[in-house]
């Protein structure tokens, strides 16, 4: 038959472990056990060990077979333990020759009144016997030491019994496993102290019939095989019971990253809302597009080296659209289109400094510039992007130097803050956040600006979930957008909602090479409960 | 966003009202600041990870409740308790916005600052000044006065590089004043520092002292602003007493105490506009404590040339109150509300833009709202700034939400679309997707891959060595993933992939009429690691990607494949083949085991249909590369450009 897979084996209720012994085979042992129980419903094997001894079988094999039979309910087994004494090597010698103290006493009696000196005694009984026997003789007051000669002389000469020998013989001659009661506890303790005997505990089993007992075992099949289908043997095959309380096999295959799963869902929501993706595959930007075109003043703190990664090589932007550059410069220095401007000097070298973009808004501004200058002029548009941005921030559990920014913007005539609120609500409803509050805020390039706070259903609290605003006229006018065109925009990071969704508390466990692939493998699909579902639940 | 810590009880005393934390949080939210944290000195110290205090030290700290309030970065008038409480009182309608008065100088001679232009031009060209008369300080006001200056220095003044504020007890010095720049050795004074009380320094030795003395480490960051200049800026009185050595430290003689009555304020700067904003802010906040509240005395600043002729002159503080207009129609349309002109003018009072009135405009724009912009609101640049404040006064959360009528069709970028489709397919092929950093060390990007160090976009201020360059290859990221996932099972092969960008120097690439000198390239990178090298496995992925992209193998490439190759329909004119990548023939060949590397060549209508272009390489990684990334199993890798397959 084809090999049964490891997992199938695990699923089958067969916990027996089998020793490799050439003979007898497992089925021989099976038969021996089952026939020993054949005399009647109450037949038992009282002790598997005794059974092994009498039937000359290996006890471990019997135990293994019993477990296998038990799994199929042919037998039921009850664990029992047996305690008994075994005699050590020295004890066996005492059984043969008598105890050391008797041997010493006999030697002294034989020497008569003069007794024996130590060397004489040693040569009479041997060194080992002499040492132990002499001590015990003195302790029992069977002998004494003559102070003048230093010789040992027997004191007791009659009626001395060799108790130790007799106790040992009693232990040895009792049936195996039943010798704990043949001598009293005090005597046993004394023998143990002399390391003559030791107490052994043996585990064995009482075997009786199980519910499915039969004198011959019918082996159950582990799995349905191709051969069974071909031969039709499946019809009269008995199959083993399954254990349904065990996991299935790992499916193998590949896995997508959880952040990318959330990204896919966000993209879907934005495209359903009619947003068109911006080409954001451009990490290196000029300060001009990243800051100046957004009307972010050149002395703004965000343009400090401790917030932005500037580029050593290539350090400076080679070219920008010059006419537009001049309009931006004028707006910063002198204002225009109803603005008083920043009234500070606009430096070309500052605008040309290359950097890693700090936001995808660097691309948004280019899209708006193109929108204003495309053939046929401005047409209303909705744009979005989800891509990497870089900040020279101090890193902690929720901040890395790079993260993904989600950004959406709408450019159309006479848009209002109410439109922005409405758009943001539609977006966040898509990811299951329905309760929103808007806080006045400050962004250098939007006015009005709002921070978006949402009641997060997973966190069960209000939390800041994004930033938003209407691009400043000082940003839009130099691009050449018509006067009444307004642009509403909002943004958030992709990492934070992903961390909340997948219950990840350190961003390093989400983004970067230290991510545990086990996390990626076990990440569920990204589904956000929609508002409709929630409302249904309430009904 | 600056955070201002204020005592809750002091704040409520200023407001004349009390709130629960929740109520104050709500008020702050509506107004546009955020109650970030409710704490106390003791609580802060208990929570601090860096400083561990003993029980006895903790017991000495105050339990007084402190509100940490986040304020918008452009609202310098909210950087102290006076400003926050005043704005909230106005917002609540409990007071009218103050009117500031520039009164006549009580002593014309004193109220004068002469600037030695040729000297100060070399280091810190501008100065603006003001005098506050009959101010009453107490401990709380004094602390707030100092903290406001610190906040301004940190934020608007960009750590004193743009502007530095010096405040002095006017009665301890003798006007008129001089602003000059002198050789460090010629500047002798006793500085206002707590170390070596009373010790006189010259400019040069003082810089050294601040650089080395641990107790002065809070001043150390400012030393480089002037240290290497031949001339140091200095403010002096008529007797030559040093008032300050901007932007580092004031002199000890003119120090402000709780008994100070008359305050001389000087702001030296490299940016005159910001200097005026800083001065106006300090005056607006602390003139409240003058004998006549909100009044200030001006100082005339004269710039003289080497011949002592006055070449430029102005009077500060400006405390410039402007009238600005916004059309009612614009405000309503921008915010999405419908408020009549008169109620809109009333709303202006809540946000310190009052008094406001309605004036007629053109037929097109309709009635105009004319508002009064106080000197503290330097952030008001345009009518939209007025509209925003009216939106705040109206309440953002009272605005009716609407849906833009903009009708557009959703669309995605073709390159992202292709990438996402391939990600799904490569995932199906048993590869685990990883997401690695765009920044890495030069060593990992080149040397560890056994590649020569060639051009890459490099950072001038990397956070650490791990963020030295923008990667030019995805491979190190994947190899580091392997390194950190040693516990995964490799026995059946462990497969990783990523589709993302690398950045390559390129001084021809144009985007939006702009050449920055670099361009992104979209790459597919995949690795196989297992008991055997798996060359044929990544090779199979190359063939799979080509099949998915409808690119046919060249006939000679599959000639020996026999039945294993099944012809499928492909795009016309698109072919690929592979050929051995010989060691030493390219910058990337060193990464691979010799004789076990290949190039992928693509012929497409884009490439002219004739000359094939190399779009990627694959092969068994060199054991030394594996060693560099501490990878224990043989590994094969493929990296190819996605852009040519678009």
Account of the 3D structure:
The complex is a heterodimer of chains A (539) and B (646). Chain A is 37% helix and 19% strand. Chain A is an alpha+beta fold. The relative contact order of chain A is 0.09. Mean pLDDT of chain A is 88; it is low at 13-21. Chain B is of the alpha+beta class and 646 residues long. Chain B starts with a strand and ends in a 5-residue tail after the last strand. The model of chain B has no long low-confidence stretch (mean pLDDT 93). Classes of the chains: A alpha+beta (539), B alpha+beta (646). At the A-B interface, α12, β6, β7, β8 and α16 of A face α2, α11, α13, α14 and β20 of B.
Biggest beta-sheet profile of chain B: 11 strands, mixed
Uncertain ranges of chain B = none
Shape of chain A: elongated
- SSE-based structural type of chain B: alpha+beta
Kindly provide the radius of gyration of chain A, computed on alpha-carbon positions and rounded to a whole number of angstroms.
Answer: 47 Å
Total number of beta strands of chain B: 30
Chain pair sharing the greatest interface: A-B, 114 and 103 residues
Helix content of chain A: 25-40%
Strand content of chain A: 15-25%
Oligomeric form of this entry?
heterodimer
Q: Give the structural class of chain A.
A: alpha+beta
The overall average pLDDT of chain A, rounded, is 88
**Portion of residues within helices of chain B:** 25-40%
